[in-house]
Design brief:
Helices cover 3% and strands 56% of the residues. It is mostly beta strands. Among the domains are: 241 residues, lipopolysaccharide transport protein A fold; 112 residues, no CATH class.
């Protein structure tokens, strides 16, 4: 993504603090020429304003982040008060006009104050107005920074500055040059005919050129007529760009992104986005996209914030704030227009032939409002034209969330309780959703009961629920009002100084105003009770005499942590078949129905509560040593499974055995494994293995194996090799070991071009349910600022 936020922020280090001295970095260590044998004239003025700026975050290795002030109003200039050490001046000769208070120093002039140093051929200092005029080989230094110019006028009190042509080397090897810099009050800087680059060559390979740059320290920077130059070739032109000097909106900033490539379903494509700031609290991204097979598309993204202006006097206090994102994207899909009968994904994952309107769109709204320290709200709306829109245009978003949610939530919390109001509605009729219109919840967190050895936790909710099935489904929708209350007592205690034992007992009552159990849909109250306990201990043994320098072993410690969870649920007076089901049970716990919680309130399937009598033993073991003065886990293994004392329908006496293993015995080797073993069929239901071998930053080889019974099996191989300082090679493969079919392969060649890193990549995907997809892309990345990237490999609208 072509984002210049970080680059521009670093440029501004030259102007953000109390003068330009804070931004210049030393270019060359220059010293005055040798003087005549006579000693230099030394002048020490009365206390004057401190030239040293407050340390910028980047100088301390911190992330650039300015407070959310009301930034579009130029900050009011604050006169600087005399403070700090005095200014000391040495020169071959100095004169002072007693009437005007002007000191004139000539020849090898050095003006110092703290760690700030000014060198010039001639300097005039007005002791009354604090104006400084320097000319002739002027160099301003502070720490490792330096600004070079032939003339600089500066006022110590107001921060006003005016320079002639100047050049600076800034933090992290950033170079900037301008014909002039001027500020009247230190709150607004104007730089004329300037350019910026990260190359230290006399003829840089690239640079960013602008006719005018206007800087508001701690606020924003505006560029007028910006051109990105690669060598002497102009690549991009932007008439006007504004960059904010904070990291608001999840780190998103203004900039331009262009993607060019080809892929199946799109053909040749060009995706363009241009982002800028309309106001301080409103940023907009314009999208203009072309796909050969689908035609033109475009839209607008808005990112906004609102709230009280930042008040430094309230630093550390809560300050109300609202942030949000709105996306509107529209496409006139020529591919669908020519063939409107396409396969549409149903709620079950199957496809059905449907007609799609070629006028396709997405409207998305996401907002969070922090109203008080203990009060906030969240809003999420996703309206799509059809079920295939995300998959066709926003593939990454579809993979992350194929059925986006729609809800509004208002929450009031405290350390011991949370009160929330939730409204969830189905916006897209092909989704299957439980609507909650609304649901009011009051949850009490686990907390001690005063003057008693017990702990208490509870949940209370009332909701109008409606199960809305997909329009592709043959199932019938149903609704009910549900009132639920749950309360539980716990008695945590440690015995013998090492064994923890926490028994618990709780009960739940749930009212439904209708049910499917009888004609007329009568109301009913379902009552259920639960009890159980959790127990465990930790034991270890240490062999401090075991040492091996070759394997970096400095003693060994074996840690064993057995644990046992028991859960018993009394059979309720109404079984799940007597109730409408609104809350999911096992389906929400992974593709293979991993073990569901056996304790309340962790178990969330309120409508699926039935008799349970389960023991869940587990044991965690770790083998440790010491490296670099800290504990190092050489290996860790965790085993657990369920023993169903009373089996429910469809359950076995013993569940599958789960194993989680990880090891890093040496610094260059990492091993991981997650296994699930089926006792009944004497075979693995799930296998996830990985092993990585690497040699610092020179090379890395990784092998992985993922197997899901009745779902799929795949082996992955990844290789990366830094051939030399200029070249690197990467490859990635995935194939089906049962058929030998290679369904994904990618290759990348990286070339170091001093300031830039160039990558040429080729990939081919062969998904089972789609056509083969061949992709080629070229990426340019600034080495000094890897955030700044021209990348054609992304799939989806620009800036996604």
């Amino acid at each position: 993504m072509f984002s210049l936020r970080r680059l521009i922020s670093l440029v501004l280090l030259a102007f953000l603090a109390e003068g330009p001295f804070a931004a210049a970095q030393q270019i060359a260590e220059e010293t005055p020429q040798e003087r005549a044998p006579s000693p230099p004239v030394v002048h020490t003025s009365s206390p004057v304003p401190d030239l040293r700026p407050v340390a910028h975050p980047s100088a301390r290795g911190e992330r650039l982040q300015a407070p959310p002030v009301n930034r579009l109003r130029p900050p009011r200039a604050t006169p600087r008060q005399p403070r700090g050490p005095p200014i000391q001046t040495t020169a071959d000769s100095m004169d002072m006009d007693q009437a005007t208070g002007v000191i004139t120093a000539r020849g090898n002039v050095i003006v110092t104050r703290g760690d700030a140093k000014l060198l010039a051929d001639m300097v005039q200092v007005n002791t009354k107005t604090k104006d400084v005029k320097a000319s002739g080989h002027v160099r301003l230094r502070q720490g490792l920074r330096q600004w070079n110019s032939e003339s600089i006028d500066y006022n110590f009190d107001t921060g006003a500055i005016k320079t002639g042509p100047a050049r600076a080397q800034l933090e992290r090897g950033i170079f900037v040059s301008g014909k002039s810099l001027e500020s009247q009050d230190g709150a607004r800087y104007v730089i004329k005919d300037s350019w910026l680059t990260t190359s230290d060559y006399d003829q840089p390979g690239w640079r960013l050129r602008a006719s005018t740059i206007v800087v508001y320290p701690g606020n924003r920077v505006a560029f007028h007529h910006v051109v990105l130059m690669v060598g002497s070739l102009p690549v991009f032109y932007f008439p006007y760009v504004v960059f904010m000097l904070d990291d608001a909106y999840d780190g998103t900033n203004t900039g331009t992104n262009v993607q060019v490539g080809t892929r199946s379903g799109w053909g040749f494509f060009v995706l363009n986005s241009y982002a800028t700031a309309i106001t301080d609290d409103l940023r907009v991204t314009y999208r203009f996209d072309y796909r050969h097979e689908r035609g033109m598309a475009g839209g607008v993204d808005l990112r906004y914030q609102a709230g009280d202006p930042y008040d430094p006097s309230r630093e550390g206090e809560f300050q109300p704030r609202v942030t949000g994102k709105i996306r509107a994207y529209f496409a006139q899909d020529t591919k669908v227009k020519g063939n409107p009968n396409v396969d549409v994904l149903s709620a079950t994952g199957a496809t059905q032939g449907q007609t799609i309107d070629p006028k396709r769109y997405q409207v998305r709204v996401v907002q969070r409002a922090n109203l008080r320290e203990d009060l906030y709200s969240k809003l999420k709306v996703n309206k799509l034209s059809d079920a295939n829109f995300l998959q066709d245009f926003f593939e990454k978003e579809y993979q992350r969330d194929p059925q986006p949610d729609n809800f509004f939530e208002f929450t009031k919390w405290s350390p011991n309780a949370t009160l929330s109001l939730l409204a969830r509605a189905r916006v897209n009729d092909w989704d299957t959703t439980t609507e909650r219109l609304p649901e009011l919840r009051y949850d009490l967190k686990r907390q001690p009961i005063p003057e008693a050895p017990f702990f208490y936790e509870g949940e209370n909710s009332v909701a109008y629920l409606s199960r809305e099935n997909s329009r592709f489904s043959l199932l019938t929708d149903y609704q009910a009002t549900r009132v639920d209350t749950f309360h539980q007592l716990l008695y945590p205690k440690q015995y013998f100084g090492w064994l923890t034992f926490t028994p618990r007992i709780g009960g739940r009552a749930t009212f439904y105003d209708r049910s499917p159990s009888a004609v007329g849909e009568p109301s009913l109250v379902r009552v259920a009770g639960t009890t159980g306990f959790e127990t465990g201990f930790k034991a270890s043994r240490t062999w401090s005499q075991v040492k091996d320098k070759q394997w970096e072993i400095d003693g060994l410690r074996h840690v064993v942590e057995p644990n046992l969870i028991y859960g018993f649920t009394v059979r309720p007076n109404h079984r799940p078949r007597d109730l409408y089901s609104f809350d999911v049970d096992r389906a929400s716990y992974g593709i293979n129905k991993d073990l569901v919680p056996i304790t309340w309130p962790q178990y969330t399937g309120i409508d699926a509560i039935d008799r349970r009598n389960v023991l869940r033993p587990g044991i965690r073991q770790r083998l440790q040593t010491k490296r670099d003065g800290a504990t190092w886990d050489l290996a860790e293994l965790y085993l657990y499974q369920d023993y169903n004392i009373q089996k429910a329908e469809g359950e076995k006496t013993f569940s599958d055995l789960f194993a989680e293993f990880s090891a890093k015995p040496v610094r260059w080797l990492a091993i991981g494994s997650n296994l699930r073993y089926d006792y009944d069929n004497l075979q693995f239901r799930q296998i996830e293995n990985s092993i990585s071998i690497f040699s610092k930053k020179t090379w890395k080889i990784a092998l992985s194996h993922n197997y899901f019974r009745n779902v799929g099996d795949q082996v992955g191989f990844n290789f990366a090799w830094r051939i030399n300082e200029d070249w690197a090679l990467r490859s990635d493969h995935r194939f089906d070991p049962t058929t030998g079919e290679l369904f994904e392969q990618s290759y990348a060649l990286d070339r170091d071009l001093h300031s830039w890193l160039v990558s040429l990549s080729l990939s081919q995907l062969r998904p089972k349910d789609r056509d083969s997809d061949l992709r080629v892309w070229l990426t340019f990345t600034l080495k000094a600022l890897p955030e700044i990237t021209l990348d054609s490999r992304q799939v989806g609208p620009s800036g996604q």
